Amino acid sequence: MKNANVTVTLTNGTEMPILGYGTWQNTDPKECIDGVEAALKAGYRHIDTAQMYGNEQLVGEGIRNSHVAREEIFLTSKLDNINHGYEKAKQTIEESLERLGVDYLDLFLIHWPVVEGHEEDWKQDNIETWRALEEAYEAGKLKAIGLSNFKVEHLENLLPNCRIKPMVNQIRLHPGVLQEETVAMSRENGMVVEAWSPLSPIPQMKENEAVIKMTDKYNKTIAQLLLRYCIQKQFVPLTKSVHKDRIIENYDIFDFEIDEEDMHYFDQFEMEGDIFM
Length: 277
What we know:
Elements: E1 7-9, E2 15-17, E3 20-22, H1 29-42, E4 46-48, H2 56-66, E5 74-79, H3 86-100, E6 107-110, H4 122-138, E7 145-148, H5 152-158, E8 168-172, H6 180-188, E9 192-196, H7 202-205, H8 209-218, H9 222-232, E10 236-239, H10 244-251, H11 260-268
Parallel strand pairs: 3-4, 3-10, 4-5, 5-6, 6-7, 7-8, 8-9, 9-10
Antiparallel strand pairs: 1-2
């Protein structure tokens, strides 16, 4: 297994590891703590959580249990929908730091652009909320700031009103969901694009003859192919599991490359059913 500590550089010079360990739905205390610890011991150096996940304290404990130095870890959290607005956001950033047991976050994101209570005034709400992130960034509490689930219309509203431009946009990305316009606009404005839920197509791909042939061709699992696909698309994938063997397997994607024909196949793949974004 090759070293996976490949990074992408954000606009402010911060280095972000190109593969992240996600913790969505990891609320069982033992599973969450052990999962974070196992990921760091397997070599991951990018951990992603959120206020909404309700597990920041557990993630912090997993980090401490790993005995990996804090400065080696790229740690992300995100603003809960109920904490929008300048004053609330400012206060809750401090609360995230406290729950995680850290002095700073490497990245902090606005989790969703339109939230309950701000359906009508979401444009001004995002501008005011972003101001709190800018101030925490300038104070050194956040090493980088960005967005999650912001599409073109949300970006068009926020970007002209930023003193500090977002450095990241974390959106759902995988074969069948490529969000090309949002990706293009994010990149045009200097943002690194992160991919959440990159393994969503697995159930549909298990019976797919072309994909099964690829698993034999590359001697990799479908999950490994999907993560590698993201990296070759220059997305930063966030993968989650609470199973140690799967955590290790998902990390083992840096010793092969998907060829152009197979990348094209994934580009054209169509997901069935409703796609939640």
